[in-house]
Specification:
single chain; about 100 residues; mainly alpha; about 70% helix; elongated
Length: about 100
């Protein structure tokens, strides 16, 4: 039973991280499209300040194995170009600091 719980916890952490990254990428892309639309319309409008990020849920204490899995997933996202170097560094610090 503890193995099942650990697997469920790992899945929840990975899914939460993937959802947060996906939402961030979607917001960033929507902002870029909005900026391109205003530039194509013949005028430039200052981009609106992004809304503050939602408060992350209180994560369960992650084991070293779970942290390594999360870091591997983040590295894959960075290699695919989904995350910038700054976003990767911020997420890495969050994982290692938590």
């Amino acid at each position: 039973m503890p193995g099942l719980l650990r697997g469920v916890a790992r899945t929840a952490v990975v899914a939460g991280t993937a959802t947060a990254v996906s939402n961030r990428v979607s917001r960033r892309q929507a902002g870029r499209w909005a900026q391109q639309d205003t530039q194509q319309a013949g005028y430039y409008a200052e981009p609106a300040a992004p809304p503050p990020p939602p408060a992350p849920p209180a994560p369960a204490a992650a084991t070293m194995e779970e942290k390594l899995d999360q870091l591997k997933e983040l590295a894959t996202l960075k290699d695919q170009g989904v995350l910038t170097e700054e976003e990767f560094a911020a997420q890495k610090a969050r994982i290692l600091g938590g």
